[in-house]
Design brief:
The complex is a heterodimer of chains A (113) and B (121). Chain A is 0% helix and 51% strand. Chain A is mostly beta strands and 113 residues long. In chain A, strands 2, 6, 7, 8, 11, 12 and 13 form a 7-stranded mixed beta sheet that branches. A 4-stranded antiparallel beta sheet of chain A has the order 1-3-10-9, with no helix packed on it. Chain A has a two-stranded antiparallel sheet with strand order 4-5. In chain A, strand 11 and strand 12 form a beta hairpin. The termini of chain A are far apart. Chain B is mainly beta. Chain B has no helices and 11 strands. The radius of gyration of chain B is 13 Å and the shape is globular. Chain B starts with a strand and ends with a strand. The chains are: A mainly beta (113), B mainly beta (121). Chains A and B meet through strand 7 and strand 12 of A and strand 5 and strand 10 of B.
């Protein structure tokens, strides 16, 4: 199984500031045949199910604000929220889909400072 | 827009079988995509259980594979989860999900609201 480790566990950021979440995989998520990293990010607001934000490391889903951006390659990835808004208070999860079993990180809680 | 809604018992006794159904609206299961289940517990976070296609192609997490079955009923536009021989460690919120249709697109673009299942006598 590919272990996914997120850091920090929680993060307090002032409104309008930047939040950066890290995700590290136990093995490379970069497929040699297509040169893509098989990583997705989800947002789970309080009392709601997770919502897909980003796939293929950096491709935002339709309707996701452009203040959300994903990056990284291999085993190290980041989700950045530029200009944190109140509605961004949530737990964020990374997920690898390089191989089965599909696995998630433990989550990073983001709240307002 | 596709919507998913879980239903089933909220309490299951140890050693018995957990059965949940997910009703799909706004999209026909027979049109494609994969349909599956993910659970969330305080101790284990998000855990992928498995997913299946109406053609019969399925994948399950190895740790649960001997106890899990996911089936699709295209006539009712719903799919189901069966988990046998449950223990307290199976207590979790269970989400039904839609997985993208591409062979390598193993991520989830639609989620139900989730249903809490407690395993207790």
């Amino acid at each position: 199984d590919i272990e996914m480790t997120q850091s920090p566990d929680s993060l307090s950021v002032s409104l309008g500031e930047r939040a950066t979440i890290n995700c590290k995989s136990g093995q490379s998520l970069l497929h040699s045949f297509d040169n893509r990293n098989y990583l997705a990010w989800y947002q789970q607001r309080p009392g709601q199910p997770p919502r897909l934000l980003i796939s293929w490391t950096s491709t935002r889903e339709s309707g996701v604000p452009d203040r959300f951006s994903g990056g990284g390659s291999g085993t190290d990835f980041t989700l950045t929220i530029n200009g944190l808004q109140a509605e961004d208070v949530a737990v964020y999860y990374c997920q690898q889909y390089f191989s089965v079993p599909l696995t998630f990180g433990g989550g990073t809680r983001v709240d307002i400072k | 827009q596709v919507q998913l809604q879980e239903s089933g018992p909220g309490l299951v006794k140890p050693s018995e079988t957990l059965s949940l159904t997910c009703d799909v609206s706004g999209f026909s299961i027979s049109q494609g995509f994969y349909w599956g289940w993910i659970r969330q517990s305080p101790g284990k976070g998000l855990e992928w259980i498995g997913h299946t296609h109406h053609s019969g192609i399925a994948a399950y997490t190895p740790s649960l594979k001997s106890r899990v079955t996911i089936t699709v009923d295209t006539s009712k536009n719903q799919f189901s989860l069966t988990l046998t021989s449950v223990t307290a460690t199976d207590t979790a919120v269970y989400f039904c999900v839609r997985r993208l249709s591409g062979y390598d697109e193993q991520f989830f673009d639609s989620w139900g609201r989730g249903t809490l299942v407690i395993v207790s006598s």
